[in-house]
Amino acid sequence: MDFAFDNSFHDRMEGFYAPAAAAKPPAPELLAFNEPLAARLGLNTEHTDREELARLFSGQALPAGAAPLALAYAGHQFGHFSPQLGDGRALLLGELIAPDGVRFDVQLKGSGPTAFSRNGDGKAAIGPVLREFLVSEAMAAMGVPTTRSLAAVATGDRVQRERSHPGAVLTRIASSHIRVGTFQFFAAHFGADHVAQLSDYSIGRHFPDLADAPNPHLALLDRVIALQCDLVAHWLGAGFIHGVMNTDNVAISGETIDYGPCAFMDRFAVETVFSSIDANGRYAYGRQPQIMHWNMARFAEALLPAIHAVDPADVDRAKALVDAIPERFREAWFIRMRAKLGLGQAHDDDIALIDALFGELELHAVDFTSFFRALAQLLRGDGAMLNALLPTADAMAPWISDWWAHLERETIAPLERADAMDRENPLYIPRNHRVELALAAAETGDLAPWRELLHVVRNPYTSRAEWADYAQPGPEDAAPYKTFCGT
Ligand code: AMP
Ligand code: MG
After folding, report:
1. Whose CA is nearest to atom 22 of ligand 1?
2. Ligand 1: which of 76, 81, 85, 132 to mutate, judged by most atoms within 8 Å of the beta carbon?
3. Which of 213, 220, 305, 298 has the alpha carbon at shortest distance from 254?
4. Counting beta carbons within 10 angstroms of the beta carbon of residue 101, is it exposed (0 to 12), middle (13 to 18) or buried (19 or more)?
5. Which of 147, 132, 148, 316 has the alpha carbon at shortest distance from 221?
6. Using one digit for the tens of pLDDT, what is the confidence trace for 239-295?
7. Alpha-carbon distance values, 212 to 153, 187, 202 (Å)
8. What is the whole-number distance in angstroms between the Cα of residue 263 and the centre of ligand 1?
9. What residues flank ligand 1, with Cβ below 6 Å?
10. Taking a C-beta distance cutoff of 8 angstroms, is the pair 470, 431 a contact?
């Protein structure tokens, strides 16, 4: 299999990474391979058997042209600055140029220790690897910007966590792995020149239209803020809780990255937290916009030396950009919510309608994902789905009639609108109880439930009778769902 590698970070950014090598796994075995993604990347697998794929995507064999390295970065973790993190369990194999010219990082995750591993083993267990594969594919299918998963390979090794698990390696595809924490690392240890070099590289790679801006570093800040506003609006719209929004887990490309303790909410509650280590709810569902704002303030700080070096007056402009984030986020959020609610036009009083909705959903503990599908069913003249979600048939009657009044200002036919809403609002998401069942089976060697769940969440919008169970939330009386970090 030929890889069209062109390793620009390796070739142009010496000093920003440490060369690294993969540990050789004893008995690699392919668990999953993402054929459509391979095709999109221009990887021709026609003459490559499963054994070869397992060797290539576990680190046992190095593809021709790879230049493996571990990226240096820092990061604020739960508000506290760690000056030295870096890829401790990941290895960037190189950058692939897809047939359409788009550049992607190919990274192995769980392929052994690097210069940045500190006390970690550099490995990953099968559960978190299959969880990232599943959730990232679900996000991609829902149109949420995200890194992707190309392959999952069992290593034949055991990995010790609270107990021993089968080891695995995930191949992650990203438009790059440059994070806010990457900027923080070079701001903290090296200063303006290195920050400017990283900024210039990032602009050349992701945002070439900004290269001629009067102050490109300020323009980069502006663009990354826009992408983060859009990203977090998508998360909220999908009921997604990232769970560990540390600055080292914020990609400047605007893709969701680092699927550790993430999960989707069933019954709506704005304070929902799943991560076992997030005791104070810092990264709760409803706090994600504020945390994004905080993370962007850290990004601005890291960029400031470079911004200042071009024009000291731009420091105030950077501050103004950060101050404007809440408003900018609300705009992105209203765009998402209008689409979810089937509103074609923007009116000032949409805001009151949207804000009121969340109080209602919380009050009645409504299943978030099902609710928007139930609204579309109402447009088709079928109120049964909505009734089943509410404690009493008229529980949300005033809000529904307000929504109806908004719809009536537009001339879209109800069925057409219902179809448009169903293209925005997923019916099938990776429900927590389903994910756990699938991962528990995979751990014992049975991948069938995981494969079926993957198939379902890759087709989130089209209702199928045989998938009715997949649309159901977990049992109401289940113990609170807990997620863990250690991929
Ligand atoms: P994360 O929680 O995935 O964002 O990781 C935070 C930092 O811990 C990163 O620098 C990781 O590379 C590092 N890390 C996490 N798990 C391991 C591990 N098993 N071995 C080495 N480093 C790790
Ligand atoms: Mg991370």
Report:
1. 88
2. 85
3. 220
4. exposed
5. 316
6. 999 999 999 999 999 999 999 999 999 999 999 999 999 999 999 999 999 999 999
7. 43, 23, 14
8. 19
9. 85-89, 116-117, 120-123, 244, 248-249, 258, 260, 485-487
10. yes
**Number of domains composing the chain:** 3
Nearest to 372 by CA among 356, 389, 397: 389
Instruction: Name the DSSP class of 72.
Output: -
Q: Percent helix, strand and coil across the chain, each rounded to 5?
A: 45, 15, 40
Same domain, 50 and 170: yes
Listed residue (210, 248, 235, 228) closest to 296, CA to CA: 228
Are residues 288 and 253 both part of a single domain? Answer: yes
Non-local (6+) Cβ contacts of 183 within 8 A are 195, 198, 199, 252, 299, 302, 303
Residue 43 inside a domain? The answer is yes
Terminal Cα-to-Cα distance of the chain (whole angstroms): 28
Residue 465's φ and ψ, nearest 5 degrees, are -55, -40
User: For residue range 358-416, what is the model confidence (pLDDT) as tens digits?
Assistant: 999 999 999 999 999 999 999 999 999 999 999 998 999 999 999 999 999 999 999 99
Residues 6+ apart with CB under 8 A from 259: 131, 132, 135, 136, 487
Q: How far apart are CA 356 and CA 362, in angstroms?
A: 10
Is residue 36 a contact partner of residue 73, using CB atoms and an 8 Å limit? no
State the Cα–Cα distance between residues 14 and 19, nearest whole angstrom: 10
Helix (H) or strand (E) holding 319: helix 314-323
Which atom of ligand 1 lies at the shortest distance from residue 73's CA? 10
End of a domain among 118, 140, 174? 174
- Does 127 map to a domain? yes
CA gap 174, 190 in Å, rounded: 26
Same domain, 170 and 304: no
Q: Is the residue at 438 inside a domain? A: yes
- For the entire predicted model, the pTM comes to 0.98
Q: Which of 319, 334, 349 marks a domain boundary?
A: 334
Compute the distance from residue 248 Cα to the ligand 2 centre, in Å: 6
Catalytically active residues, by annotation: 248
Contacts of residue 411, defined as CB under 8 A and 6 or more positions apart, other chains included, come to none
